[in-house]
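Ex. 9. Protein: Lipoprotein.
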Amino acid sequence: MNRSLVVTVGALLLAALPGCPRTEEEVKRDCEPEAFELSACDRSGFAALQADGVWATNVTLEGSDTPSVMLLSSDLSKSLIFGGPLTVRTVEGETFFLASDYNGAYAPVRIALAGCQAPTPNLVKGEFRRCVDGEMDLQGTFEATRIQRPAGEQESSGVELVSETALPRGSPMDVFVADGYAYVTALTGGLFVYDVREPGKPTKVAEITPTNDTWYRSWVRGQTLYISSKTEGLLVYDVSTPAAPRRLKALPESATDLQGWGLVADQNRLYMMSPTPKAEMLIFDISKPAEPSLLTRYYVPDSNSSAGEIPVEAAVLNNRLYIGHWRYGLAVVNVADVSKPEALGHFGYDKATSRPVAVGVIGDRTVAFEASEGWGSRVRALDVSDAAHITEIGRFEMGQGSTVVGLTLVGSKLYVAHNQNGLRVLDMSNPSTPRQIAYYNTWRETDSGRGRAFLDGLSAVKVPGDGYLYATETSRGLLVFREQ
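Predicted structure tokens for Lipoprotein:
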């Protein structure tokens, strides 16, 4: 995994390329504009298309969605398609055609998009093809929507920005706040510690740079910091002096390429989701925070890791663990007896990509909030009072191109990190009818780095109870908000 579990189009399209060139002499031109059959298309909308900008794009191949992003500019040298250079752009009259050419192992490769219709100036649908040496070997459809602020919204409502602090490097992924310090993980950039005792003036006091590693989540218990690592599992640091973190150990001690991802602590236990290599959950005893010990490794019995059914994020309440289990959906596990975790039930759905989770008691029901990651992302409110019979009782969604990547529940308020749609604050006192009560649009097209990754924008939001909201944004860094 790189930035996310969402498969990039680039990685998918580079996979399974032919191992040798074609030997026939006939020259194929299957990815040239004239090869696409568009006679049945209504292309009249292309004349009004607002092409320049960042476009969230989804390619569908054999029913499987693969989201990515395009950056279109009249200056071809500044344009990107699925993370690579755009080499052909014809967007004029009734034509919308984009192509990227590169050298494969044995033959030239082209990725091409031909528009069939533009129902609005910010939406294009059409055909996708990949060709090797001119001959098509992949074919599907695509849908692209230009990223822009939701209709009728200003920059913010009900929330004010208190401070904005750019990170020295890396892509801000998550933040944990404890005792006046914010611990920001930044993937390959490592971890940064900020003094936020004056939230309006965060000050960097320390940083830790990993060696050939990626850090996803952090959690602090007392004077001990835990970090989930791509290559070492769980990292343990002494932060009794936040300005001078001191590494203690990595767990499990025998970990080799064991990936840590989601982290959540409850009472004297720390739960770490490990998507690979065994799609398991690791439970640690942290009754002595600086000396954690591994208690249990657990695999949801009827899940299939080879089908992408892997644990990513989790929330815990009353000795029940609620796991965003990617293609499996939401899994519920009884962890009262740590030696024998028990699967209680799960909630699956078509094309599941279950990742962020939050859970709480609202009224007389236990409600889990689960969000899919990817194209058409949405938050589902699930009644999990009876884990063997989970029902969906409500949902919140904002369209196709922006994805939900973080959830924090405080009472009946749900704080949503919604990538390009920024921060959303929802009143969930009636989970069947979510009501947005505040927002902040953090994504700006002019910020550095836009248009290079589908997962872009607000990446996490935490509410530690000090009167402020702390969030990370992939381009803007550490953001501190206050509700008005």
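Check your answer against this statement. Residues 1-9 have pLDDT under 50 and may be disordered.
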